[in-house]
Amino acid sequence: MGKNVRILAQLQEIDLKIDSSRGETQALKSEIDTLEAKAEEKKLEIAQQKTELCAVEAEKQILEENLATESDSIARSEERLREIKTQKEYQAVSKEIAAAKKVKADLEDQVLQKITRSDELNAIVAEKESNLQEFEVNASARKSELQARIDQLEAAASEVLAARDETAKSVLPSMMKRYETLREKRQGVAIAEAKGGSCLGCNMNLPPQLFNSLFKEDTYITCPHCQRLLFMRNEDGDVSE
Question: Residues 179, 100: one domain?
Fold first, then answer.
């Protein structure tokens, strides 16, 4: 097996660790984003409830003003009623009072509905604000844990990247380009182990003559099925020299 392939096999182990670290880091950052988005969603819900509450309170105030106006009108009409001399005028004013009392009763019902809705909204807002406060406390603790792990991963990544750069210096530019192309096409796995006559990258059997060629020095073999470069490990599990 060629020297470049041996080095690339070692390089791939480093790259897979980097890929795993980056994947975990991205997942952790996504979780932080999700926690922050949930907090904003809860705040938006509270804001919407408060907006509705303000609207209900404003509507209630208008209804109460109308109710006060109607009550004053009824009181004035009842005062007039005591001064009326003719039966016809008495009946007309009495009819006006009856109609006004009906309007007043309807306004009172509407005010009561607004009071009920206002109480409901106040309770909802109080509950949501309490839930938000609890969520933010828990989310803050969780984000601290996540950020600590991200910092740990990023610190370790800088060391791994330095090792990768050092290893990559030993690979011919043409082989490095091929390796990078294969990694892009094969979900990050450009080099596959050959074992027991098979390619472990695609789990397909290799032609015996091709498999035996892996024992030769200064050559590289490509899997005919997945096109990955092939390498072998020694009995200790290390990449064969």
Answer: no
Give dist(CA 135, CA 1) in Å, integer: 57
Please enumerate in sequence order all residues whose Cβ is within 8 A of that of 195, keeping only pairs 6 or more positions apart, or say none.
232, 233
pLDDT, tens digit (0-9, with 9 covering 90-100), for 118-155: 999 999 999 999 999 999 999 999 999 999 999 999 99
Residues 128 and 30 in one domain: yes
Q: 168, 183, 199: which is the final residue of a domain?
A: 168
Are residues 182 and 157 part of one domain? no
CB atoms within 10 A of CB 220: 19
For the record, the structure tokens of 150 come out as: 């991200």
N residues, the chain: 241
182 and 190 Cβ atoms separated by less than 8 Å: yes
Pairing assessment for the beta strands 191-195 and 229-231 based on DSSP bridges: parallel
CA distance 112 to 106: 10
- What are the residues whose beta carbons fall under 8 Å from the beta carbon of 84, sequence distance 6 or more? 90, 93
Share of the chain above pLDDT 90, in %: 67
Number of structural domains the chain divides into: 2
Rounded CA-CA distance 135/129 in Å is 10
- 189 DSSP 8-state letter: -
Helix axes 87-168, 3-81, angle to 10 degrees: 170
Mean pLDDT of the chain: 90
